[in-house]
Write a structure and sequence with these properties.
The chain is an all-alpha fold. It contains 5 helices and no strands. The radius of gyration is 17 Å and the shape is elongated.
Length: about 150
């Protein structure tokens, strides 16, 4: 039981921290310095490396989160409100990620493989908006986890 929270937090840091870095640092730097073919190719290569970490994080977050709910609280009936909020926000994030992975990311890869830079740009813009949304939700979720017991218990 003592390993669930540290593993949970590690997975959250990998996922949300990765999105924050990509959105706030890599995206503007790539847009500033690279032409569309290089920029889109960079993003496909970046996502190819980052998305397996997101999938692993999702598995760890779900396993440790539900393990803690049932192990520490004895199930949902005794789980504090802030944990329910955190779980709901996390599930929304997971659904957004799955949409990104199975729809615009797949189409981005296809566009880059076909050297269709305008279409790739559209898909990357769609991913950018969804990752921005997920980053905000992730930060709110972290704040809920950190402060929820004081305000929402």
């Amino acid at each position: 039981m003592q390993y669930l929270i540290p593993l949970h937090l590690l997975a959250v840091v990998i996922w949300v921290g990765g999105m924050f870095f990509a959105y706030m640092a890599l995206r503007p730097a790539a847009a500033e310095t690279l032409e569309p073919p290089a920029r889109l190719t960079l993003w496909v290569a970046t996502f190819k490396r980052f998305f397996p970490w997101v999938w692993a994080s999702i598995i760890v977050i779900l396993a440790t989160g539900y393990g803690y709910i049932f192990g520490a609280y004895g199930g949902f009936a005794h789980t504090p409100l802030f944990v329910h909020i955190m779980m709901g926000l996390g599930i929304v994030m997971m659904l957004i990620f799955m949409h990104v992975f199975f729809a615009p990311y797949r189409r981005l890869k296809q566009a880059v493989a076909a050297s269709n830079w305008p279409e790739g740009g559209k898909k990357l813009a769609q991913i950018r908006k969804l990752v921005g949304t997920n980053t905000i939700i992730g930060l709110i979720t972290i704040l809920t986890a950190a402060a929820g017991r004081f305000f929402l218990a």
